[in-house]
Automatic annotation (TrEMBL):
Official protein name in the record: CDP-diacylglycerol--glycerol-3-phosphate 3-phosphatidyltransferase
Gene Ontology annotations for the cellular component aspect, listed alphabetically: membrane
Signal sequence bounds: none
This protein's UniProt keywords: Membrane, Transferase, Transmembrane, Transmembrane helix
Regions that span the bilayer: 21-49, 55-76, 114-139, 151-168, 174-191
Organism: Dokdonella fugitiva
EC number: 2.7.8.5
First-level EC class: transferase
Entry's Gene Ontology molecular function annotations: CDP-diacylglycerol-glycerol-3-phosphate 3-phosphatidyltransferase activity
Length: 205
């Protein structure tokens, strides 16, 4: 299925002048990666501590900034000779830690569907792990299907809708469970395509 991830090249093109300026200023990819996690943790803390539903409006803003940070750190690494093994670790861990830090506190808010939120976060970890396992078995890092950017879109939309009070909380579980189903499909898709890629490489050898 199509993914928001496919828009990444165009988004990177818009960010390239900023990335070049950051590189000249001495900003590193790893610093940006860590900053993205700190942003997620700060927003998660606000969601847990502030009762006002308007605090949910932080979600679309923070998720857009995080998407920008994720694009920037990758471009700094690839285009400005900053790739490192530490950076690869931080990049993968930062994604799942950031998701958990920002999304799990929603389960602490009155009336929010705890089970749906917890399963949504845990399944997201498995989706990303499946993508990384592709590298372990000799394929590329897989990004097929409903991934990080799509989960962020769902949570950002939830923050917008419920921050403005446009829908009753009783409806909140539906988009989360649909996202869970799409995430489960992404796990299967990433695993199958990683195995197919490995077989194709073997046949070509």
């Amino acid at each position: 299925m199509p993914s928001i991830y496919q828009l990444k090249p165009a988004f990177q093109g818009l960010l390239r002048p900023l990335v070049n300026a950051l590189a000249r200023a001495g900003v590193t990819a790893n610093q940006v990666t860590v900053l993205a996690v700190v942003l997620c943790a700060a927003v998660g803390a606000a969601l847990a501590l502030v009762d006002d539903p308007r605090i949910l409006l932080l979600l679309p803003v923070a998720l857009f900034l995080r998407m920008a940070f994720n694009a920037i750190d990758g471009m700094l690494a690839r285009e400005h000779a900053q790739q490192s093994k530490l950076g690869a670790i931080l990049n993968e861990l930062g994604d799942v830690v950031g998701d958990a830090a920002m999304y799990l506190p929603l389960a602490l808010r009155p009336g929010f569907p705890v089970a749906a939120i917890v399963v949504f976060v845990l399944l997201g970890v498995v989706v990303e792990m499946t993508g990384v396992i592709g590298v372990q078995i000799g394929a590329s890092r897989r990004y097929d299907g409903f991934g990080k950017s799509d989960r962020a879109f769902v949570v950002g939309a939830i923050g917008l809708v419920y921050g403005f009070g446009w829908a009753p909380l009783a409806w909140l579980g539906w988009p989360l469970w649909i996202a869970v189903a799409l995430g489960a499909l992404a796990i299967v898709t990433r695993a199958r395509r990683a195995l197919l890629e490995v077989r194709t490489k073997g046949d070509a050898a």
